[in-house]
Amino acid sequence: MATTLNPAPSIRGAGGYPLEAGTFDEAFAATGAPRPPYAELIEALAQQAPAELRERVRSRVAAAGLEFGPGREMAVDPVPRLIAAAEWERLEPGLLQRARALNEFLADAYGPQLIFEAGVVPRHLLETTEGYEPAMRGLVDPSVPPATVAGLDLIRDEQGELRVLEDNLRMPSGAAYALAVREAVEPEIGAPLVPRDPRGYGEMLGTALRAAAPPGRNEPSVAILSDGPASGAWYEHRRFGRELGIAVVTPEQLETRRGRLVVRRGGEREQVDVVYRRLDEDRLSEPDGSPTALGELLLPALRSGRLRCANAFGTGLADDKLAHAYVEAMIGFYLGEAPLLRSVPSYDLADEMGRRAAMERLDELVIKPRGGFGGHGVTIMPRATEPQRRRAFELLRRRPERFIAQETIEISSHPTVCGAGLQPRRVDLRPFVVSDPGGGAAMPGGLTRFAREAGELVVNSSQGGGCKDTWVLGEER
Question: Which of these three, 335, 356, 387, is where a domain ends?
């Protein structure tokens, strides 16, 4: 049951800020007092009318053309999420560690497959996943991280600990949106707080893309491979293309010539050394092993060694929800380290012991399709209707290996402008890690996403969620 609190004049005028029992609120403690470092932000917000602040931010968003898909203006809440410097200093090494281990896993899976031989990760992951691309076997250079960009979805649990809910290495989107949201929100807040600047992300990305080039290409030609204006992340593709000075191309603009990939520009053709893959299409080969149309276009240059792919085809293997269940074991196997970030526990339903443990308490868990994304196909059993629960039971009875079960977390809430005041809405965090042969770095903060409805746990933009600015406070070391 909710408790109504009055921590600031603007909130009191809106009828109180309700804290949800059993949920960690990012800004307010159970007593109603602002958590550090939110006191200054709440005071600054108290001097403004929340609805007017939201409209000013919305005007900036519209002027920037910030969309998530054609004609879908992105919902941006004006109340930023704050991360204290001390927490970020603990969090960032865990992000880098996890991205490093996942890249090692991908290089291994497309190479010697040592982790499967050792039995640390079950081979049935490889045999049943939708994310493995057989045509890439032997084409992943272990010296170049196959996932140049990783987006790790974090949630804060009931005790306030940030934990990894999902891993996204195939085609994580949102970094450009995080930059744009900062540009829309920060000028309107007026709080005496100094967030770290995320704009160095573009330079990190450009450096990593150039570093992925084949040997001997000292001034490589890089292109963003996109679906074009129909893509949900078209804003992001155009922005990074413009800021990094690289072409944004579609497959129709490319052709293969003598083992090289070339892009047509007017009447001229230019060799492409690196493609930053941002396509929805993920397959280079058909189930029978024959190449897809995309495979016919790219595989000759990949096999000749004259082309490299940033966020290589086949990185979707690491996005498989079953792979998530074994990432902590990957960290130990490849890095010889203890995990710095904990995963939300998952159950391997293809494993007899895991399936038995999950089925004994299935009513308490979340059921996810292994290859799903954007929150689609997820059944939160404690909140499901009886027909939804029966359907989940039937799917698991018939094909348990296609799903995983995961612990249900009452993810944290954050003050969000609703109507004329502030109300709690659930949030997650997607930080972005860029990896190159020399190491890795993370954007300070990342993109916070929020659910639009009270109590809703699904925050994905594809399901109507909105975005918040994420401020990492304090000077960088």
Answer: 335
